[in-house]
Specification:
The complex is a heterodimer of chains A (251) and B (135). Chain A is 39% helix and 14% strand. Chain A has 251 residues and is an alpha/beta fold. In chain A, strand 2, helix 2 and strand 3 form a beta-alpha-beta unit. In chain A, helix 3 crosses helix 6, helix 5 runs parallel beside helix 7 and helix 7 packs parallel to helix 8. Chain B has five helices and no strands. Classes of the chains: A alpha/beta (251), B mainly alpha (135). At the A-B interface, strand 3 and helix 3 of A face helix 4 of B.
């Protein structure tokens, strides 16, 4: 039987994490749950543990990229066949996981399935600010051109990966705002991705990691990452090379 | 160059050199980060002693105003040092990330191991499959 893992990055989500974990257990029982506590200062880890999740507690805040990568490292080391990222704030509905899993399994050539708020009929319950929508459209446009398939929701954090994609992301995952870049990395490694329309809920507690004043900085950083990424001779580095992202792992 | 100015600049660049040297000697500065500083101090010293060097350099480069070559050299060193620091910082923050992840994974492994010895068979199977070593 295949083993499935739900990676739940959480930073100060004590108010929502227990419900999120319970939700996954209830609606997607075939998924083990690992919560990556990204250096929270509240009781996120304790709530997650009490809810029955394995908790990986980072000693300090690494940011979403480092947290998610820790989850992929766990998935790779424990031999999971499928790993899915789910936000700790309860935005992502675990009932959609079955849909994503079905699409991923239906096509063996597929390596990553993203839950998109904007794909399909366009009817969705998710609301976000106008400036954020402009940014999302811009990234969607650029990414679609680059990877040669429609990408409607480049910043969606709900993505399901097969073993190949798990191994890729465990070895190298982008730093600051990783979602957009991860799509590019996948493409650079000739792995295939697709999107499935999902509904997302408005977050119930906590605050988004990207507030309005930071979104411009966010856009500039991601655009830089996209264009530098395109010009890289080789998309990833191997351990032991002088590039810093190749810092050797293992003790 | 005026002898007084020459004396001041020799003393100043010797001072920089001595400061860097002293920091290395007290092990507050690692050799690998001291080299660029020492190179900078040495070239300042050379230019102070051989005061005509600046003018010759300016002539060779087609610079009208000799001292601006000095600014260019100093700016160049400052630029190199800052790039150097950015590189070191990038490497350090990445190594830091790897360490944090590795520590967290090991810790969770240890916890599941402890839970396993307390008699939960599912956790035992999990930790047996885990190998944190990464190639």
């Amino acid at each position: 039987m295949q083993r499935h893992l739900a990676i739940v990055p959480a930073y100060n989500e004590a108010g929502a994490i227990a419900a999120t974990v319970a939700d996954v257990h209830e609606h997607a029982p075939e998924f083990d749950v690992v919560v990556i506590d990204d250096g929270s200062t509240d009781a996120t880890a304790a709530y997650a543990r009490a809810a029955g999740a394995v908790v990986i507690q980072l000693p300090f805040n690494l940011g979403i990229g480092g947290a998610v990568q820790a989850g992929y490292l766990y998935a790779r080391d424990r031999g999971y066949e499928v790993a899915v990222q789910i936000d700790g704030d309860g935005q992502h509905d675990p009932r959609e996981l079955r849909k994503l899993l079905g699409v991923l399994r239906a096509d063996p050539g597929l390596n990553m399935v993203t839950g998109s708020r904007f794909a399909g009929d366009g009817e969705d319950g998710y609301r976000s600010s106008a400036s954020r929508r402009v940014g999302i459209r811009l990234f969607a446009f650029i990414l679609s051109r680059v990877v040669g398939r429609p990408v409607t929701d480049p910043t969606s954090g709900m993505r399901m990966c097969d073993r190949k994609a798990i191994e890729l992301f465990a070895a190298d995952y982008p730093h600051d705002y990783p979602e957009v870049e991860a799509v590019l990395m996948l493409h650079a490694h000739r792995l295939e991705g697709t999107e499935v329309p999902v509904r997302m809920r408005a977050r119930t507690t906590g605050v988004s990691s990207i507030n309005a004043s930071r979104s411009v900085l966010y856009m500039v950083k991601v655009l830089l990452a996209i264009f530098v990424g395109l010009l890289r001779a080789r998309p990833t580095v191997d351990p032991g090379e002088p590039a810093p992202v190749a810092a050797p792992r293992g003790i | 160059m005026e002898p007084r100015l020459q004396l001041i600049s020799i003393v100043a660049s010797l001072g920089v050199f001595a400061l860097v040297f002293e920091l290395v000697r007290r092990r507050r500065l690692m050799e690998r980060y001291a080299l660029l500083w020492m190179l900078a101090a040495t070239s300042l010293l050379v230019m102070s002693i051989w005061s005509d060097l600046l003018n010759q350099l300016a002539d060779a480069l087609g610079v009208q105003y000799g001292p601006s070559v000095l600014f260019a050299v100093v700016l160049g060193f400052g630029f190199m040092l800052m790039i150097h620091f950015s590189l070191v910082l990038s490497r350090l923050s990445d190594q830091n990330k790897v360490l944090a992840q590795q520590l967290a994974l090991l810790q969770s492994e240890q916890e599941t191991g402890r839970a396993a010895s307390a008699g939960d068979p599912r956790d035992a199977e999990q930790s047996a499959g885990g190998d944190l070593r990464v190639s």
